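Dear V.,

Thank you for sending over the compound details. I've combined the ligand you provided, zinc ion, with the protein sequence from our construct and run the structure prediction for the complex. I'm sharing the raw inputs here so there's no ambiguity about protonation or stereochemistry in the SMILES, which I know was a concern on your side last time.
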Amino acid sequence: MIDHTGAAVRSGARGEFGGLIPIRPATGNVAVCLRGHRLDLDLYDKLKPYSHRYRRHGTLCEVCRAQEGCDPGARRLAEWAHLDVTVQYEPDTAPGDGLVLVAHAPVAGTRAGRIELRLDGTEVGTVTASPCVSCRTATLDYVHVAAEYRRLGFGRTLVAAAVARAPSYRWTAPLPDGPVAQSFRARIAMRRPGQPCAHAGKAGLTR
Ligand SMILES: [Zn+2]
Ligand SMILES: [Zn+2]
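Below is the predicted structure of the protein with zinc ion bound, written out as C-alpha cells.
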C-alpha cells in the first residue's frame, strides 16, 4: 500500500489488517526477494518503499509485483518491511505507533525473558527464551503470533529478536504440539534441548 496521506489511514478502520505486508529481520544487503528473485543484478530498478502501517522501510520486488498483478489469488510477497531486531525497547519507552519490539525483564526467580512484538501499541506476537550465562546456552521456550497476523514473518522475526540478545550462545528449541506449530518449528535451525543444565531454575538475566 502506498499511502500519501500520512496518519489519516493508519487506524486500521479501512481493513488494512488483511493487507499487511510481510516483515523480515533487517539484514545488510537484500540479495533476493521472498520468492528468490535476485535483486542484486541490476535487472530492475530497486524500489525502497516505506510502510506507513509499520513505520518501517522495506523492499519491493518488481518481478513479484507484476506476477501478483496477474494473479489476484497469489500471496502478497512483492513488498516486505525490514525490522531491525537489535532495536528492542523497554516496555514504558516503546513508541506507540508502528511495529516495534519490546523486551521485558525476566520475572523474579526465573531466567525466562520475553520479547513482545507490538503494532500500534497492541501485542501481536511474543517470544520467551531462557538463557544460561554460565553455559552460554539458551532455549527458545515459546513463540506465539496472534491468528490474524500469521504467515507474515512475525514469528521468525521474533525468533531472530531472541537470538539477537545472545547471538554467540548455543540455541535449542523444544518440539511443540500440533501441525501448525511443528511446521513453524521445523523451519528454525535449532536442535532440541538436551538435559537441563546444572544452573536451570536459578535466577539469571538475559543481558
Ligand atoms: Zn520477487
Ligand atoms: Zn547452565
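A first observation: Residues 88-185 form a domain with the Aminopeptidase fold (CATH 3.40.630.30).

Warm regards,
I. M.
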